Every structure is written in C-alpha cells, then in structure tokens.
Amino acid sequence: MAETRKRRMTVSVANEAGHVNNDMTVNLISPASPADSTAAETHSPSNAHSTGAETPPLSSAPITPLSATTAVANPAQLPEESALIRLGRDPIAWALLLGIICFSGPGLAFVNNCGSMVRAMSHSTTLTEEQIGQYKDKIVATQSFFSFFSRLVVGYLSDLWRTKLRLPRSGLLVIAGLLMIHAQNTAARVSRLEDMYPLAVLIGTSMGSAFTLAPTITAETWGAENFGLCWGIITLGPAIGGHICNLIFGSSWDQGLYNIISRLGKDAPQDRMQCTNECFIPAFRTTAKIAYFSVFFFTVVLCLPRVTAFWKRQRQE
Prior knowledge:
Elements: H1 2-29, H2 34-42, H3 45-51, H4 66-69, H5 83-89, H6 91-121, H7 129-163, H8 170-187, H9 196-222, H10 227-234, H11 236-264, H12 281-316
C-alpha cells in the first residue's frame, strides 16, 4: 500500500513538472496575455507548494532582434564623396586650371588678333586689300595646320614617354609652356610680315601640344569615369585666359593708336593715323610674363604628386 502511494506521488510530481515546463515553453515562444499568465500560475501547484509564494509571470514583450535596435554603420553603404567636391579639394586640379588659363590666354591673343597684326604691318608695304586678306588667311591656316599636326605627333610621343621611359606626361606639358614663352617673346619682336609665319608655327605647335596632353592628364589623375566633369571644368581656362589677354591686347592697341595720333597731331592725313607694331608689342610683352606663370603651375602639376608620395612614405617609416 505504501509502495503504491509512493508510485502515485512520483507520477503526480512528474506530471506537474511537465506541466510547468510546457507553460514556460509557451511563454518563451509566444507572448501570453495577462489572463493566460494568471491561469498558468493557478494550474502550477508545484510553484505554490515548493516555494510558498507565487512565481511572477514571464515577460510578454516580443523578442526584438539586435539588428533592429542597434544601427551598425556599414562603410559600403555610406554616400561616396562627389567627384566635384574631390576635384575642388585637390590642389593639382587648381594648378592645372591656373596653368591652362595662363597658357591659353597668350596663345588665343595671337589667334584672335593675328589679322589686326597683319594689317598693322602692311601699311609700309604695297600690298592690296585682297593680298592682305590672303596673307591673313595663310597665317591662320599655318597656325591651324601645326596645331593639328602637333596633336598627332605629341600624342604618339607622350605614349612612348609614359610607357617606355616611365616618365609623367606633365613633363611634356612643361615643355609646351616653355614653347609658348618663346612664342610670346617672338611676337614682341615682330617687325615684318614675314615674321608672322614662324610665330604662327610656334603658337600652333604649343597650343596643339598642350591641348593633347591636358585631357590625358585629367583622365589619368581623376579617372576616366569622371573625365567629362573634370575636363569640362578645366576647359573654363581658355575662356577665362582668352578674355583677359584679349583685353590686354585691346588696351595696348588703343594706347598705341592714341600715342600715334598725339605724335602726328589731329590734322595729320588719315592714312598715316594707322597702328603699327607699336600698338601690339607692349601687349605681347605682358602676355609673355603671363606665360611664365603657366610654366610654374605646370611644374606644380608635375612635382606635387611625387613630393606628396615621398612625404607619405617618410611618415610611414
């Protein structure tokens, strides 16, 4: 009899334990209402008998994943800095832009005003108006041809310069700037119509070389995917430099004409009140000084990346 009672008590305790474990499993898996929690406490006699006090119900709040409560910054998802901002912060971009301004301005001063220069030096000749017009056309054609031809030659040479000799293309850009300085100093010494041909060759060669190298340097420095934006900004240089140097040429022309009229007097014949090389030589002396700045900025484009890389290596060591 006692053995049978002991067996019944063991089965009852096992059933109660299983009931409690089932209740705990339900509370952990799915949130229970307060009524369900109360019912669970009522039907758990083991808690009441074993501890003598009611066991508080488990929390009914749903379990929230860690990823929903904790924001983890993923570097791959951060917005990338735009190419325009990176270009504006890069000193090489500013050096290249300023170099193009100081380079293209003097060159465009000749391209835009070579017709006025031819007419100014034709007063001491016996050329007719038709011959003067043909002469101007030949000067423009010479400059255009050498600009075209130098683009082909310098483009090929720059590839050899970069791939075979392992030298930066910006070194050739410095040479183009030196050629522009020589061209401007030649323009400041023009005294005959025949001097216009070598001047047109120098201007055409230097302009064609620079505008072959600068786009390639832009693509290599800031990537082909950003070429349209970066080169579009760099090409503001010719517009800015051309306006500045044309204003210098116009001011020099007006001042030269005023000096001639003042020297001859207002009663002098009209055919003598014409500009000569006196009207544009001061302009090219000024633009030659501007061209020196282009060589300086192109040298910065050449040296700054290498100086920066050397400085970073020294800091790492």
